Amino acid sequence: MTSALDDRPIFVIDQSRCIGCEACVHACGECGTHRGTSLIQLDYVDRGATVQTAPQVCMHCTEATCAEVCPADAIKIREDGIVQSSLKPRCIGCSNCVLACPFGVPKYVAEFDQMMKCDMCYDRSSVGLAPLCASVCPSDALWYGTRAEFEATRSGFLENRYRFGLQAITTAVFTVSDTPLGDLIDVMAESSDAPWQDDPFALDDASKERARCD
Amino acid sequence: MAKLPVTEEALMAKFGPHLNVAPPGGWNAGLDIDKEVKTHCCFCGQQCGIVLKVKDNEIVGFEPWYEFPFNEGRLCPKGVKRYLQGSHPDRLLAPLERDESASDGFREVEWDAALDRVVSEIQRIQEEHGADSFAMLSGVSLTNEKSYLIGKFARLALGTANLDYNGRLCMASAGAAAKKALGVDRAPNPWSDIPLADIVFIAGANIAECAPITTSYIWRARDNGAKLIVADPRVTPLARTADVFLGLKIGTDSALMGTILHILIERDWLDHDFIEQHTTGFDAAAAAVREYTPQWGAEITDVPASRIEEAAELWGTSATGMLLHARGIEHHTKGVENVLSCINLGLATGKYGKPGCGVSTITGQGNGQGGREQGHKCDQLPGNRDITNPEHREYIASVWGVDESEIPGKGLSAQEIMNEIHAGNIKGLLSICFNPAVSLPDTKFTAEALDKLEFYSVIDFFMSESALHADIVLPGSLHEEDEGTVTSAEGRVIKINQAVSPPGKARKDWEILLDIAERLGKKSLFTYDNTEEIFNEMRIASHGGTADYTGITWQRVEDEMGMFWPAPEIGHPGTPRLFEGGKFFTDDGRARFIPVSYRPPAEVVDDEYPIWLTTGRVISQYLSGTQTRRIGPLVDQYPEPLCEIHPNLAAEYGISDGDQMTVTSRRGSMTLPASVVSTIRPDTLFIPYHWAGKKSANQLTQRALDPVSKIPEYKVSVVRIEKADGSVAVTDERDMELTDGSQA
User: Fold this and answer.
1) Of B516, B541, B571, which marks where a domain is finished?
2) Quick check: is B134 in a domain?
3) Most exposed of B506, B573, B639, B643 (fewest Cβ within 10 Å)?
4) Are B210 and B380 in contact (CB under 8 A)?
5) pTM of the full predicted structure?
6) Which pLDDT score, from 0 to 100, does residue A185 have?
């Protein structure tokens, strides 16, 4: 992204701040372009082991795999880089995009026989309003604003380059890392390395006087 | 005669909870609206600003209120979907009278008939058994004006001492401790102080799920370099990111804080000037923790000594710091002591009255702060005055235009009222926005008590599980159907604006109370044409009290998007941060160190009940669930209670994720699916408490109370468990619905 575009708002996902509340999931279903259908994925990474959750909006790839594999040319990319949801008259419901997206974002919605995905709240972002999910997020895990605002108020480094096997991808949506990572994003590796994390209740702590049951 | 009139199944078929899943007209109706109303979320004490969209006197959607300074548009899922409580199929639209011959147990009656019946029963019971044999229970979802009105109504119209409120189940321990040590019961800081703290210490507060917007303040602090300590028996979503995690055994909070105080003293991480100039009682508090070495603390709390020392060092050596606590340390038979042990840490290090410094409760209920100031507590008069203080009584009597002797004395607290109903000494009850059948501990006992009432009337907007026991149900108003003020967790007085009018024959709560007062012959004491008039009388009543609203006007609250009390005169700017310059609200202006010695909880594990149980909330539900169990998308998110259990403990009993398990305490037993997670202590279970009947966690909890705050010990019970038959799938049904087309 060039400096001339620096005053344009960017969308940032910081998974490490996600508290799993699903405010974004519910707010997405209130978006004027697809009201009643939420298109955000929010999943526990491994609930048995951790409360870590990860929200997934469309990453709006520069070279969008979903659009490239669409046999019906139903997925269009706006001038500002936003990859739109499928065009209803064109979408044939084949789910090529669903299978191809490296981030697992597009969903085939049977009720409408159409692929639907995040369009960055077109009804809002096109008139200067923040997307609903980033508006409501209680922990700012989803965030919308300019790069300058991000740098003035938040810690961490913006990242938008990924490698999936042989495929390199650059996205309009950013994630955050504690230190600059190069071109490989590994979300799990970003979680805090506080020493207690391996053993929250010190079950293997030999120094601890264990007095269970009284 | 308060037994259920017909079967529970028949009542549920009629009154719900049913689910509202879409706005009026459906999802495709569009957002063609008549008006937008700036107001606040009806749920927790954060009181987030929100814009409600209104069409044809119905709320059809929301928009973030970006300008409101507390939340700047942010909302949790309850806030996003709050609008679905409107236009709800379960909404009570007319007064109901119990009728065992009716198929659904109740028949509609006219307002006059309903109110006449209520008043005649009040008069009959009080004539036969005395004034205090009729009790009232109130709620802190209600505005300041309603809280004030109810305090006056119960004392002067009903003439009963026995009025209490459900804040007794929430902030009572924090309030009592703060009054004792600091002379005032209010959060010491505006939340804008949190980002200024170098250390944030969270004790017994599941902030991510119970005060979600506060998460953003803590991240702002951490963006500024702050460290985070979390003390909790579970790795909650915010605890997951902590720098230091203290996974303590439940019921040992004051031992943990006492150990930290011991270390602060030992290492001389004290603010001697502050202690000397602004406090009293340090030596006694220090003496109480003399033996509380890190090794002792580790033994009691089951947290490694090194982690306690690390936390003490972070708290003791940081120039600024905020300690935030909530029900996790307050719902105890020593809730007040737990809070005092936290306050001692703030006083010892001088962390009061300065930017980024404070020890604060996170108030839970919507008007939990304001509701505990205006006089509907059993021991309190408006302005946070003491009902046993002769001067306070005289002043309020002068505001009310009555003789001091006409104001009854101190009454019983909420659980004690239920105990006296069970004992047969209290015969009649009027409740408003309080669902004791779900929210009080030991639900079997509560149901037995409600069955013994000679007369029970409920004012509410949905048929709560308690209302099912009532003789007369009066349809009151939802949050968005009336205007008024509430005071948020920060101490910020804000304006609730009316978006729609009550549907059907439902009426505003305060109008119902005025009508009852009139029928009781007390009309002259209750002559208000609108809520602003009640507010203005409340301001006068608060004048000179600690919670002084004198300078807070209807217009300024609206114009300034909230004002912080105290504001003791007109034109006063309000007081966002308390205790500046080390000035406390006690008689001598000094804060009190109060010695806290650790003592065990009311119940401890034994051979028969070898496992600890604690209870709490989930993000998508709110308190007794009267509202949130009726909002479809919130129910879908977490449909029923699960029992969190550590894999080590689960393995001992052969329990796998999703298996049904039976949990039994001395009070009762329930069977529910297991959620096997290593984010909870291996000696402890967690069950959320939002559900009724067989799904109620309070079947297991006990009625043991804190001797001062009278809060029940929801956070500590002991149980035994066994694997039960059956299991549930542990998938999220919603993922299936989207792709198979079954979504509504």
Assistant:
1) B571
2) yes
3) B573
4) no
5) 0.95
6) 67
